[in-house]
Design a protein that fits this description.
single chain; Beta-Lactamase; elongated; 6 domains; about 40% helix; alpha+beta; five-stranded antiparallel beta sheet; 29 helices
């Protein structure tokens, strides 16, 4: 192209370019070397004023053959020898000689002789070199055509031998004479058409009438085409039999031509292939369908001896691997070029050949070699060929290239896996790490996913097939080679938004100065090839993916891997952006949530305050729970509430509630809590007309006494009652009641007044605590009371932490379904005994038994529990309930605990803080139940029969059930 451009100058064709174009047209259809040379000399005659144009072509060690009419043949041969030996042109005022260089070697020389000394300028030399190139290309094309024609002739000869060899078994022979229209056949043909052996054949047209009606047009068309084009044909069709069945028949016809090339008849073979049709899927397809499939797929067809020696291979398989027939024929099939690259592939092929030699066909997916670095996946089939006696005489291997299908399957699987991994992750960093992990080692030996935030902060997540190398990769990607101008950085791909593939990284590694940390890290990583692709969403770059292989693995990335990385980048863009938006929403929600809650709680003299707030789910939505503490007149006002719903609307109502209560107390510093809630009710209705949102709330006014203790007044608007925790551990709900706030303008409620002694506490909470649930079991008010009673004597912070810790343990790591808020106030001044210091945790009437993991052992365990409950004085009706609950718990443990059957279940019964506590522990991992109707009610039944029930994991599954000893316990 460069020479053409120089010849054209400023895009203006001249006479020389026209001469080149005319020469190209003249040489285009020359298919023999002699034709090329003669046409070339004829068209080049007179170019550059030459009186003689000679094309000297070398042929092995012989003297070059001269095409043209040289004035001095000896001088031309001498010049040819010199330029062929040196490989460079020779310029002389009377003679110019230019080597004609072929693809493999120098073919000869183009020699121009001038009648008078001529000055050959730079453009003239360029023109002559271009002429020589045209000659070389035309000669190469002619050589390829001749080789192809010879190969085709050789292949036709081999195929003819192959067809005759296959037809020699269970095959009949027939002849059709065009002149007479008669058919003759061997005695084996008759039974194929349902006629007696040796029956006289019918006329040609009548023979067609014996073919199955649905196949008749096909065979008629094949014969008609073969006659018209004088070429062989092959057709498979059905022949109805006298018993009503069909036999599959393979017919092959070969035209017979006279000396003048006129068709005189057809010789053919007929073979019954019914059994072969059933056993060989590839051979059951029609010739037309086979050709259509072969046009679009890599197809190998060959012939093996029963010992596995390859005796025939089709041209497609040979040319695809660029091997010659003599390189593979006569060798064991597993030792040929396609298979010899991998011992496991060879061994499996050996076994398939042995099976086929015993009459068993094989079909499986295999990986074969086409080039030194090229492997393809094939659907490989090996089928035995039988003779009339059922003996295996040959084996036919065939294959279809399914590389793209396998790549597509692996691509879809990887995309699905990477998408699922990213979706399962939460944060931006976790999703980037999940993507990097999905790429290694499936696609590359190492990967780096690098995200750039709007503030310029970079997030780098890496994965390496060798865990010890992950730190090296992370340092390299985080601290080195990060500039957009550096070709081995993701920043370059991100800035240009263009994928980049470098099959050999060695040169880039050597560009770094020896002794630098970057060079040291690169040599440790030992990269061989790598690619980078940007992660872009709606035109905005988010980051990029870097994927590489090492010299240790020997893998080389290619365009397929680059396309896959691009598809992953497209999927990652949305996943990473969703994570970014999710984090932003969560940050906004946390910020807004914190703005709706008081900052640091005040430190009232004589009082202790503590609070906790646990967000539901992952915290990306603003909850409706709120609390507040502030001074009003001589009192401290405590507020807790729960607004209907979540999100911005709930936040708006929450803000209204907090500020309405503060404004009410500012306006009337001594306002009664009932009046405050009445004002809040009217405010919600007034400022949110038509809304169906409502709120619950508790307002408590606390005034400390100089001599100790505090007076408290409480009003409740449909909220869970606060818990009054006395210093002796007694707990009781505060009995203030009222309706929902924001529903009825005529709101009514009752207040409560009491005195808190030193050491007493008031605990306000939302229903996120009592309604916390897992596996269908609720935390419940009774559990809350027990937790607070056990924490009696602690300060306000210890009370809040006890509640928070108990809720988290109950959830067992599962997310909360509702927000949790708790606010505790404790009056100073009382001594603080150790928790439960005045009460024993449990008495000594404890029972522990081991229960075998068998259903037939459960009745004895239930009887032991009944006896224990009766001995400790549990009411009869409670005994019955608990025995049923224990039986259900034991049955669940036997069914679901997939552990060591030799390790029995642990059953424990004890008394704790006035409760009967029963624990069932297994030592296995949970397994799902068998799907049957009316299942899933076990835990519901246990929850209904006990006051408390919870599940925990402790080297197995632990189910704990509690019930008050008094049948009427709350």
């Amino acid at each position: 192209m460069l020479r053409y451009s120089r010849l054209m100058g400023e895009h203006r064709p001249d006479a020389r370019l026209l001469q080149l174009q005319r020469l190209s047209r003249a040489l285009f259809d020359a298919l023999r070397r002699e034709d090329v040379a003669e046409r070339f000399v004829r068209e080049a005659d007179g170019m550059l004023g030459a009186v003689r144009v000679t094309l000297a072509l070398a042929d092995g060690d012989d003297v070059p053959r001269l095409f043209g009419d040289p004035a001095d043949p000896g001088a031309v041969l001498a010049a040819t020898a010199r330029v062929m030996g040196a490989g460079v042109p020779e310029w002389d005022p009377r003679r110019a000689a230019v080597p004609v260089v072929g693809v493999e070697r120098t073919k000869g020389a183009l020699v121009l002789e001038f009648g008078a000394p001529a000055e050959i300028g730079a453009d003239d030399r360029l023109f002559l070199e271009t002429l020589a190139e045209h000659a070389a290309q035309a000669l190469h094309r002619a050589r390829l055509h001749q080789e192809e024609a010879q190969a085709r002739a050789d292949a036709e000869e081999r195929h003819a031998i192959l067809r005759l060899a296959l037809a020699a078994t269970r095959t009949g022979f027939w002849q059709y004479d065009v002149a007479s229209g008669t058919v003759s056949w061997s005695e084996e043909v008759g039974p194929v058409f349902g006629l007696p052996r040796g029956a006289t054949p019918p006329a040609f047209e009548d023979a067609l009438g014996m073919v199955h009606p649905e196949d008749r047009p096909h065979i008629a068309k094949a014969i008609e085409t073969a006659l018209a084009q004088k070429r062989p044909y092959e057709a498979t069709y059905r022949v109805p039999q006298p018993d009503g069945s069909d036999r599959w028949t393979l017919t092959q016809g070969y035209p017979v031509l006279d000396a003048a090339g006129e068709l005189t008849g057809i010789n053919g073979l007929v073979r019954d292939v019914t059994e072969q049709k059933r056993a060989e899927a590839a051979l059951r397809e029609s010739a037309t369908r086979t050709r259509r499939l072969m046009d679009g797929l890599f197809v190998f067809v060959g012939l093996l001896e029963t010992d596995g020696t390859l005796v025939e291979a089709n041209r497609t398989a040979l040319s695809a691997a660029d091997v010659r027939a003599e390189d593979v024929l006569g060798r064991p099939f597993w030792d040929t070029y396609w298979w010899s690259w991998h011992p496991e592939q060879q061994e499996r092929l050996r076994r398939a050949v042995a099976d086929a030699a015993r009459g068993r066909a094989s079909r499986y997916d295999a990986v074969v070699r086409l080039g030194e670095d090229t492997r393809i996946t094939i659907d490989f089939q090996l089928v035995p060929i039988l003779d009339d006696d059922g003996r295996v005489v040959n084996l036919v291997p065939s294959a279809i290239d399914i590389t793209e299908r396998e790549r597509g399957r692996r691509r879809d699987a990887l995309l699905a896996h990477a998408g699922a991994a990213m979706d399962a992750a939460d944060t931006l960093e976790e999703r980037a790490g999940a993507l990097a992990g999905a790429l290694v080692p499936e696609v590359g030996d190492y990967a780096s996913v690098e995200i750039t935030g709007a503030d310029g902060r970079r997030t780098v997540s890496v994965a390496h097939a060798d865990p010890d190398m992950a730190a090296v990769l992370h340092e390299l990607r985080s601290e080195h080679a990060l500039g957009a101008r550096d070709p081995i950085s993701v920043a370059a791909a991100q800035e240009t938004r263009t994928p980049l593939l470098i099959p050999d990284v060695g040169a880039l590694v050597r560009e770094w100065p020896a002794g630098t940390r970057t060079r040291e890290l690169l040599e440790t990583l030992s990269p061989r090839s790598y690619l980078t692709t940007p992660i872009v969403l709606r035109g905005r770059p988010l980051g990029g993916i870097l994927l590489g292989t090492t010299t240790r693995s020997g893998r080389v990335l290619d365009g397929v891997d680059l396309d896959l990385a691009g598809a992953l980048a497209e999927r990652a863009a949305l996943a990473l952006e969703n994570a970014r938006l999710h984090e932003r929403d969560r940050h906004i929600a946390r910020t807004l949530q914190h703005s709706l809650l008081p900052g640091e709680l005040p430190h009232p003299e004589g009082l202790e305050l503590a609070s906790a707030y646990l967000a539901a789910g992952d915290g990306h939505e603003v909850g409706g729970d709120f609390y507040d503490v502030f001074r009003s007149g001589g009192d401290w006002v405590l507020v807790i509430g729960d607004v209907c719903g979540k999100g911005p609307e709930a936040a708006q109502l929450t803000s209204l509630c907090r500020h309405a209560i503060r404004v009410a107390c500012l306006e009337r510093p001594d306002a009664d809590p009932v009046a405050i809630l009445d004002l809040l009710n009217r405010s919600i209705i007034a400022f949110q007309p038509g809304s169906t949102r409502f709120s619950t709330a508790v307002v408590a006014r606390v005034r400390t006494h100089p001599e100790g203790g505090a007076a408290v007044r409480v009003a409740n608007g449909a909220h869970l009652p606060p818990v009054w925790l006395r210093d002796d551990g007694t707990v009781s709900p505060v009995p203030a009641r009222g309706g929902l706030l924001g529903i009825d303008p005529a709101w009514t409620g009752t207040g409560w007044e009491g005195e808190l002694a030193p050491g007493d506490a008031l605990v306000l909470h939302t229903d996120g605590i009592t309604e916390a649930r897992r596996h269908g079991l609720f935390f419940g008010e009774r559990r809350l009371m027990r937790v607070l009673r056990a924490a009696a004597g602690g300060d306000a912070g210890e009370l809040v932490r006890a509640v928070e810790r108990s809720v988290e343990e109950f959830q067992g790591g599962a997310p909360l379904l509702d927000d949790v808020a708790v606010l505790a106030l404790r009056v100073d001044g009382a001594p603080r005994p150790a928790p439960n210091g005045c009460r024993p945790d449990a008495d000594d009437r404890r029972m522990a038994v081991r229960v075998p993991v068998r259903y037939d052992a459960l009745s004895g365990a239930r009887a032991s529990v009944r006896t224990w409950l009766q001995d400790v004085g549990v009411a009869p009706e409670v005994v019955d309930d608990l025995v049923i609950a224990v039986g259900e718990a034991l049955a669940n443990a036997v069914e679901h605990a997939a552990g060591d059957p030799g390790r029995p279940l642990d059953l424990e019964c004890l008394l704790d803080d006035g409760d009967a506590v029963i624990r069932v522990r297994d030592h296995g991992t949970w397994r799902p139940p068998v799907a049957t109707p009316n299942r899933g009610y076990g835990l519901r039944m246990i929850a209904a029969l006990t006051h408390e029930a919870s599940l925990a994991s402790d080297g197995g599954t632990v189910l704990t059930m509690r019930h008050g000893l008094d049948a009427g316990a709350p």
